[in-house]
Specification:
- This protein is 87% helix and 0% strand.
- By secondary structure, the chain is an all-alpha fold.
- Helix 2 runs antiparallel to helix 3 (60-85).
- The radius of gyration is 23 Å and the shape is elongated.
- Residues 1-15 have a biased composition (Basic and acidic residues).
């Protein structure tokens, strides 16, 4: 019975050590920088969605709205890219 508990304890220690190595290897990123990166990735996803919608749009009014949205998102991406590269 003791061997079972002992092996679980060893397994837990190994897992904790592996998680600690991962945490030590990950660079420390300030919260503001992490937020800028998340915003940048989010904007890229929005751009991809707008482009996909634009490819399927048939009506001129809808296409116009999507083109305006795309221009806005691309401007925001440019601003976010600037913020990421110049913290």
């Amino acid at each position: 019975m003791a061997r079972g508990w002992e092996s679980k304890s060893v397994e837990e220690r190994q897992e904790a050590a592996a998680q600690q190595r991962v945490a030590d290897a990950a660079p420390e990123v300030p919260e503001a920088e992490a937020e800028r990166r998340r915003e940048f990735v989010s904007l890229q996803l929005v751009r991809a969605r707008v482009l996909a919608d634009l490819q399927r749009a048939c009506r001129p009014a809808h296409r116009g709205m999507l083109e305006t949205a795309l221009a806005d998102v691309e401007a925001r991406i440019a601003a976010a890219r600037e913020a990421v590269s110049n913290p």
